[in-house]
Amino acid sequence: MSLPDFSHQRAQFTLPEGLVYLDGNSLGPLPKAAPDRVARAMHEEWGKMAIGGWNRAGWIDMPDRVGDRIAGLIGAEPGSVTMGDTLSIKVYQTVAAALDLRPGRDVVLSDTGNFPTDLYMVEGLLRTRGAGSLRLVEPEEVMDALDDRVAVLMLTEVDYRTGRLHDMVALTERAHAVGALTVWDLAHSAGALPVDLAGAGADFAAGCTYKYLNGGPGAPAFVYVAPRHAERVQPALSGWLGHEAPFAFDLDYRPARGVSRMRVGTPPILGLVALDAALDVWEGVEMADVRRASIALSERFVAGVEARCPELTLASPRAPEARGSQVSFRFAEGYAAMQALIARGVVGDFRAPDIMRFGFTPLYLGPDDIDRAVEVLAEVLADRLWDRPEHRQRAAVT
Amino acid sequence: MSLPDFSHQRAQFTLPEGLVYLDGNSLGPLPKAAPDRVARAMHEEWGKMAIGGWNRAGWIDMPDRVGDRIAGLIGAEPGSVTMGDTLSIKVYQTVAAALDLRPGRDVVLSDTGNFPTDLYMVEGLLRTRGAGSLRLVEPEEVMDALDDRVAVLMLTEVDYRTGRLHDMVALTERAHAVGALTVWDLAHSAGALPVDLAGAGADFAAGCTYKYLNGGPGAPAFVYVAPRHAERVQPALSGWLGHEAPFAFDLDYRPARGVSRMRVGTPPILGLVALDAALDVWEGVEMADVRRASIALSERFVAGVEARCPELTLASPRAPEARGSQVSFRFAEGYAAMQALIARGVVGDFRAPDIMRFGFTPLYLGPDDIDRAVEVLAEVLADRLWDRPEHRQRAAVT
Fold first, then answer.
1. Chain A closest-CA separation from residue B1 CA (Å)
2. pLDDT digits (tens, 9 = 90+) for A253-279
3. What is the pLDDT of residues A326-338, one digit of tens each?
4. A13-14 and A204-207: which strand pairing?
5. DSSP characters for A30-61?
6. In angstroms, how far is the first alpha carbon of chain A from the final one?
7. Are B216 and A60 a contacting pair at CB < 8 A?
8. Residue B121: which of A39, A238, A266 has the nearest Cβ?
9. What angle do CA A317, A323, A326 make, to 5 degrees?
10. Residue in B17, B42, B62, B276 to test binding to A, most A beta-carbons within 10 Å
11. Centroid of chain to Cα A54
């Protein structure tokens, strides 16, 4: 079975010269169209229309309009996604909304594989509410930990360290069976693999757009509210752009219709314009094809590394269906080894304490890139190239 | 006394062709340097460094670095300001932090002239806390309403509708005398007039950067925490970028040192780059000079309008020292009149129910602009040019 042909998509990216970029799961590369689109918005809209851009350039509708484009990539109903803020803020918002919908319960269940900011935000939320607790279990224990005290099951579908993929359908079903609601963090899912929020019956979801969606550093987050809940949500972060009539300047808050009530403040137009350009790359792309190619690339990588790098231990599930679009290996000297690898033009990243992480993004990566990555990694390990002082210096961002 | 010469600053802006732009208090015009700076960040940093930009291009430090530049414009101590999110979010954060520092009290005092989103965010915060109340009084009653039940005095220094300027020094002093803390919204102050947060003994402040600071549509907000409080604040929005060691990926939250703990999620780099370029315009500018010029322009405008437009009633304080950098007039047909004015190249804005609002931004406005604005306004009113169907159609953003 031949792999899908993504050469048309690959041509739409600026890839760092000479690099094999296996870190699109952290920050996607620059889509070629994005700088001109942002420049045009700055010169032709901000420059020529100034305040008039909110109406005439349609800035005011961008969060919902771009949200609808994301909806199409994550199996969400039209009109159920909007944009803005950061994923951390969107986690706070959605967990707060879900807790409100489950009065009489106060446990938020999550797992130790969740990305820390999700846990931190819930800590802060529960402290602010003065009630409730965050129950953390191991990822494989989540299903059994769901009981009738749980108000909200909050999980990141794909583990940022290991790539382990939760079963969204089964966990959502079980959560509903015990009377809980679900909040899914799709940071490592959106643009990485097929997601079917509507089909799974998910209640809330949120995600960032700077990873597999290539929106740029700090690009705006997205938030999903199932249409059956949207009109019942009373936003905790009740900002004026989520008001029914922002420009009535009423003293009291009345939520807007549907998911638009999850908007908070003035939307970040430059970030939305860059993201909107980045989303053009997905036109005509089937997520099932992306998944098939991602699995082929990651299997090729795992086979190559296991054959040539005995120092490394696979930290990801072996079965590709049980992973997202990344593969991780444990190595005690992982930090230095990753720096040595990067210095030689193969870019992955490191996650404490000992995880070397590699992302597979078929829109701009092919089998040759994988072979080159394996080759360089094998050389770094065989020749202990990591064992140099310059590779041990920790940078601010790892 | 001659006015300061801002021709060097004026040359640094792209002004909408043929417009007299009296709406810089809503969205500042495009600084000429901004598009190239953003393009360079996209091509040279994102495009060439990809994930490496966080360290090599210094993205990770941008919130605090840009925050320090803002600090210099609002009389804040170095290291006491950081950037990110929207003003709405920053209001939530600061009021939550201030409430935490005043256990046993639960009243937030504000006024009916505050910008609605500040009130909405506090409504949401108090609902989430399940305790406390928002007490709203008229602007002139604030001083007397400060009593020993008030935990937090939250005010916007300059009224978005009338331009009325609160006395930050006196109100902060009185708040402290009754044991309350202050949160100052500087949306219409930063870049508009001298602000001395440290001198006033302010506790917390926040503001947006797309008005007088010209950061662009939806530019990131700033937040200030007085150094004496910074190490005691336990952030309610406890995101990973406010963690002491974000890349340790600990399961528990530990706040970063100082104001950096008010960071939440991944910072919006494109927005920060545009803002950073916009801040260059302020190099060598004395805020006292800006204030002096702003008063001269607004006095000229008020005198002209009152002489020639008897239909309008001044809604702003008559004494220029009692106003920010805007002037408003009431007119029952204000919406249509403003549309007629805009159609003739004089841009102000409308605030419900009947306010015609005009902002004075001396960096790019001179006396000739004011005279032209008065001329056109007089013509619109004398000839009832507003009384046309096309000027009554309400747009999404007013």
1. 33
2. 999 999 999 999 999 999 999 999 999
3. 999 999 999 999 9
4. unpaired
5. EETTHHHHHHHIIIIIIIHHGGGHHHHT-GGG
6. 37
7. no
8. A238
9. 100
10. B42
11. 28
